[in-house]
Structures are given as C-alpha cells and as structure tokens.
Specification:
CATH class: Alpha Beta
Radius of gyration: 19 Å
Number of helices: 10
Helix content: 25-40%
Strand order of the largest sheet: 8-5-9-4-10-1-12-11
CATH superfamily: LigB-like
Number of domains: 1
Shape: globular
Number of strands: 12
C-alpha cells in the first residue's frame, strides 16, 4: 500500500539560489516595488513602508548578516536533502504555487494536479534589461533552459480521481505544449534541483493559484484537501513510499515574524484550527505561499513535525525580505 513516509517544507526565495554577497541586488528591486503586501491586507509602496516603519532593520540588513543567514540556510537545505535521500521515496508530491509560469490569466485554475509523463520547466527569457541576479537564480530554479523531469501519471490520476470522488472539483493537466512559452516554474525546479541530489525521482506536481484573485483557495480549503489527499494515498494499493514537499514561503515581501512564528507553532502543535483560519490579508502576494505549507500540514497529520529552522531575513532597513523557513515531518 502507498504511504506518506516523510514531508518537508522549504522556502524557495531567490536568495537561496544567490550568493549572500549579492542579496543587496535583490534589495534594490524591493525599493522600486509599488505594491508590497502587509499582513493586514494592505499594499504599499516601498517609500510608504519606509515612512510607516522608519528604518529599524538598518543594523541587520547588511552583507555580514546576509552571509550568516546564507550559510545557515544552505546548511538547513543540506539537512533536508539528506533526510529526503535517507527516506528513499518512490515518488514526491510537490505542492507549489504557479505564478503564471504554466498557466496564464487566460486559464488560471485554483488547484490543479499534473498527470503527464514528463515535467518540462519553462525557460525564462532574459533580456538586457533583466536584473543580473535573475539570470543566476534561474539556474537554481531549473529555468535557465528547458529541463525534463519524470512524472508519475498513474499515481497522479489516482489522486485526481480520488479527489473527484470526494467532491473536490480538481483541475487536471497532462502536457506542457511549448516550454519556451509556458512550463513548470520556480516552485518545482527549486525542490528538484536543490533537494534531489541529481536523482530522477518521479514527481506529482500540485499547482495552487495562491497569487491571483479572484479564485485563490482559502487556507481552510487547502488544509482540508491535504487531509483528503492523505486519505486517498493511504487507501491506494500501489506499493509506494511517498514524500510530500511544500515549496515557498514564509512571509514576504515584507517580513512578518509574528505571522511566521504562528505558522511554525501551529505546525509543531498540529493546530489545524489556526492553519485553517488564516485570513486573506495574511496570504497575499508572496505570503500566499504559506498555503503550500498548510496543504502539506493537512497531508501530514499522521506524522510529527520533528525539526524546523527559521531565519527572518531583512533585505532593507524598512523591513522587506523573506521569512526563510524549513520544516520536516516524519
């Protein structure tokens, strides 16, 4: 019988695919951002954020601190990769957010499962105007070229049919027609490139529309579908060791340590109520990737959160950055 034997959740911020000494390049783009999300639901410009917050993080938005967090984060990623290798899963279910990489505004399903044989990444088009850090990061996301990774269509179809039987109207996709125009993006490429260690492990991608209104799923729905997915996997007659991977998060593009700690505490304590009740305001823009963690937590109710690390990473004095976090369940 199929069994979820290991779950993980990791941030996939560009900083994790970029040298710490170059994080200041990413910070410069923050200062041009006119729509930074706050956990109360507001969107503000960087200038307005600086007026509201002042510059309380100037003493830690430094290259020395960047290098310290870079080293700790890469150590944490190595720990997760080692745990995944030791688990030796037959398939990895990756929960990620599609940011108009495979889907577009012409058709943006709330939740979709891919059941194709081949997972093709979208090659990011780089122009002379593209910030230099983006080209480097695309390699870590497997988006510097078209990369092919194996899917697990039979298992994916079982999950899709199981959800339909559970009255979940799940979208289904089976093919990447032209990866130069659209394909799998950063949420999936980062997990495979950074954590698989070159192994060709079959993947079942779950694609959440966390970013784009009006049909972003609620935290409640993500958690409850996660529970249903775990039950479907548990009933499968396939002899599979399954790993679950949540990609992205936590708070960004303005760091909210209180929100991040609430998520990590709820995961440790199996507090489904807190995870299911996260508000829309807390889950806008980059922070919406927390939904990937929420679904993974729902799929991991039978496991124990046995390890986590958290690094609130401020790129600018006004507080922009990412709550970089890592967690495992076993």
């Amino acid at each position: 019988m199929a069994k979820i034997v290991f779950s993980l959740a990791v941030s996939h911020t560009p900083m994790l695919a970029l040298e710490g000494k170059r994080w200041s390049e990413r910070a410069e783009d923050d200062k041009k951002n006119k729509s930074l999300n706050l956990s109360d639901g507001r969107f503000v410009s960087y200038d307005d954020l600086a007026k509201e917050n002042g510059a309380p993080y100037g003493g830690i938005a430094t290259e020395a601190k960047f290098l310290e967090i870079e080293a700790a984060s890469q150590k944490a990623l190595g720990h997760v990769a080692g745990r995944l290798a030791a688990t030796a899963p037959d398939v990895v279910v990756i929960i990620g957010d599609d940011q108009a990489e495979l889907f577009s505004h012409a058709n943006m399903p709330a939740i979709s499962i891919f059941h194709g044989e081949e997972i093709l990444t979208h090659e990011k088009h780089i122009t002379p105007q593209t910030p230099g850090w983006i080209g480097t990061v695309m390699k870590g996301y497997a988006m510097d070229a078209v990369h092919s990774f194996p899917g697990h269509p039979q298992f994916a179809l079982e999950l899709i049919r199981g959800l339909i039987d559970e009255d979940v109207d799940i979208a289904a996709a089976a093919k990447v027609e032209d990866p130069l125009k659209a394909g799998f993006g950063h949420a999936y490429g980062f997990i495979i490139e950074r954590l698989f260690g070159g192994r060709a492990i079959p993947v079942v991608p779950i694609l959440l529309n966390t970013y784009f209104p009006p049909n972003a799923p609620t935290a409640r729905r993500c958690y409850d579908i996660g529970v249903k997915l775990a039950n479907i996997i548990g009933k499968s007659q396939r002899d599979l060791r399954v790993a679950v991977a949540a990609s992205g998060g936590l708070s960004h593009f303005v760091v909210d340590e209180k929100l991040d700690q609430k998520i990590l505490k709820a995961i440790r304590e199996k507090d489904a109520g807190t995870l299911r009740s996260l508000s829309r305001g807390e889950l806008n823009s980059g922070s919406s990737e927390i939904l990937n963690w929420v679904m993974a937590a729902g799929m991991s109710e039978h496991l124990t959160n046995d390890w986590s690390e958290y690094f609130p990473t401020y790129r600018t004095s006004a507080g922009t950055g990412t709550g970089i976090a890592f967690a495992t369940w076993s």
